[in-house]
Amino acid sequence: MNEVHAVIELKITPQRDCGFSKIAERVSKYAQVEACFLMSGGYDLLVFVKGESLQDVAEFVAQDISTIDGVLSTATHFMLKTYKAGGVLGIESSDDRLAVAP
Question: Is a pLDDT exceeding 60 seen at residue 35?
Answer without folding.
Answer: yes
